[in-house]
Design brief:
Elements (H helix, E strand, L loop, with lengths): L2 H9 L3 E5 L8 H11 L5 E5 L5 E2 L2 E2 L13 E4 L3 H13 L4 E4 L10 H13 L3 E3 L5 E4 L4 E4 L7 E8 L2 H13 L4 E6 L8 H9 L6 E6 L5 H11 L5 E5 L4 H11 L6 H11 L2 E3 L2 H13 L7 E6 L2 H14 L2 E2 L4 H7 L13 E2 L6 H13 L5 E7 L6 H11 L9 E6 L2 H12 L4 E2 L2 H20 L2
Parallel strand pairs: 1-2, 1-5, 5-6, 6-7, 10-11, 10-12, 12-13, 13-14, 15-16, 15-17, 15-18, 18-19, 19-20
Antiparallel strand pairs: 3-4, 8-9, 8-11
Helix pairs in contact: 1-6, 3-4, 6-7, 7-9, 10-16, 11-16, 13-14, 14-15
Length: about 450
């Protein structure tokens, strides 16, 4: 059985049993069942609660073994002391996959109970995600088997998180910020299924374009890096590795029961495997946004276009810090661009259109640059002014890049007040790599250059 076949019941089950379903709103066993129903999951759903006849219009069963059909996925929401018995009953039912939501295991020092549960699962050839998780969201099967928000925006990124609370918060944040995800997996203590298993699975998932991981530690580092090295040939992997400081490492160990390890070792291993390590959640999502919505550049000659000298300078500084190459504008290109610019504009790189530049100037300028063979990518920056509508500029930038289907990478920043924020949000809605600051637009382009360098190094 391949890695994808083995984990398929977690992501494409035809039937789900919620062991420990509750009638009381607010209880985790109720909210998970409610989210499954609201998400539009088309398979069969069976609450397990011996004290209820039905919950949310689903018929209840006293025990999972009483259900008169095959169960692909069990979600276990019972106290830690009752979990081993629940896993055993799932094994007797020949359930191939189970998510253990319950906490109270290795993260609080209760390693013996966690080990016993995994031994039972292995006896029945059952795979386990958890314990100590908030569940799984998978857009492809319209399954929100979590106790997080009931609506999650679908997209192209598989997000794997070792932190439950952070993952739950990011479920809401990604939707608010228009960062769609194809999957969210809370892996908790990683007693069985771990990062390597999921990287192997998502590397073969056609709905996934990129993989993002929040990681506090690894139990089998070598296996993860072997999986990652294989996967990055086809899909980029971005990791936020927490626990880089001594106290942070101690906090990670007490949080999920994992060993954070020496940070310098992780950094070296990430680099060797081709994994991109982000310094923050914001940077990680900025990278992912650019990667998901752009082609890999054919070269490294970048051009910055701006209507404000200040943000142009900030972007240039950021490019230099990250090792991005700004091309010298050749004479023939200067001649072509001269008609679009006032005499007091600058045709150096960054190209300063000045505050007089309207949406039509942006559209023509970006179109010309993207059509040039010697330009490999464009960073378009806009500073809000009283005489120009940011919404029109955002639309013009998208139009100039082929309606968001550019053959060359482009990132954009819309800097200003409310209208700029609205323009930035609408660009995100249209699957465009847009940002609220110049530096973040540069960071997005850096991710694409880093991806290009990684692919080139493998040729």
């Amino acid at each position: 059985m391949t890695a994808k076949e083995e984990l398929e019941p977690f992501f494409a089950p035809k039937s789900i049993a919620v062991v420990g379903a509750s009638r009381k709103p607010g209880k985790i066993g109720h909210e998970i069942l409610r989210n499954i129903k609201l998400s539009g999951f088309s398979g069969n759903v069976f609450p397990i609660n011996p004290g209820a006849e039905s919950i949310l219009d689903f018929k209840c069963y006293e025990n999972i073994t009483k259900i008169p059909q095959r169960i692909d996925l069990a979600i276990i929401v019972v106290p830690a002391v009752d979990t081993e018995a629940a896993v055993r009953e799932c094994g007797e039912k020949k359930v191939p996959a189970a998510i253990i939501i319950s906490s109270g295991f290795s993260e609080v020092g209760n390693t013996d109970l966690e080990r016993s549960i995994i031994e039972v699962a292995q006896k029945y050839r059952m795979r386990i995600i958890g314990p100590n998780t908030f569940g799984i969201f998978y857009a492809g099967s319209k399954m929100n088997a979590t106790f997080g928000p009931n609506y999650v925006l679908g997209g192209k990124t598989a997000f794997i998180t070792q932190s439950g609370a952070l993952g739950l918060a990011l479920m809401s944040w990604t939707t608010e910020e228009r960062y769609g995800v194809s999957a969210i997996v809370s892996i908790g203590n990683k007693a069985d299924v771990d990062d390597a298993d999921l990287v192997d699975y998502f590397s073969l998932d056609e709905s996934v374009k990129s993989i993002l991981i929040y990681m506090e530690g690894l139990k089998n580092g070598r296996r993860f890096f072997e999986s990652a090295k294989r996967a990055v040939k086809n899909k980029p992997i971005v990791v936020i590795k927490a626990g880089s400081s001594q106290r942070g490492a101690q906090a990670a160990s007490s949080h999920t029961g994992s060993i954070a390890g020496q940070d310098i070792v992780f950094s070296a291993a990430f680099e060797q495997a081709g994994v991109m390590r982000a310094e923050s959640m914001t940077q990680a999502f900025d990278w992912i946004q650019a990667i998901n919505e752009n082609p890999v550049p054919e070269g490294e000659k970048m051009v910055i276009v701006t209507n404000g000298g200040g943000i142009g300078v900030l972007a240039t500084d950021r490019c230099e810090k990250l090792g991005l190459s700004l091309m010298d504008i050749p004479a023939d290109l200067k001649e072509e661009l001269r008609t679009l610019m006032p005499s007091f504009g600058s045709m150096r790189n960054p190209i300063d259109l000045t505050a007089n530049a309207d949406d039509e100037v942006y559209r023509k300028m970006v179109s010309i640059l993207l059509a040039r063979k010697d330009v490999h990518g464009v960073i378009a920056l806009f500073c809000q002014t009283a005489n120009i509508d940011p919404l029109l500029v955002g639309e013009a930038i998208i139009a100039s890049s082929g309606g968001g289907k550019a053959t060359k990478p482009i990132t954009a920043a819309m800097v200003g007040g409310h209208l700029s924020q609205v323009a930035y949000s609408r660009m995100l809605e249209k699957k465009f790599a847009a940002y609220p600051t110049a530096e973040r637009a540069v960071d997005g382009m850096y991710a694409l250059i880093a991806r290009r360098r990684e692919l080139e190094s493998r040729k």
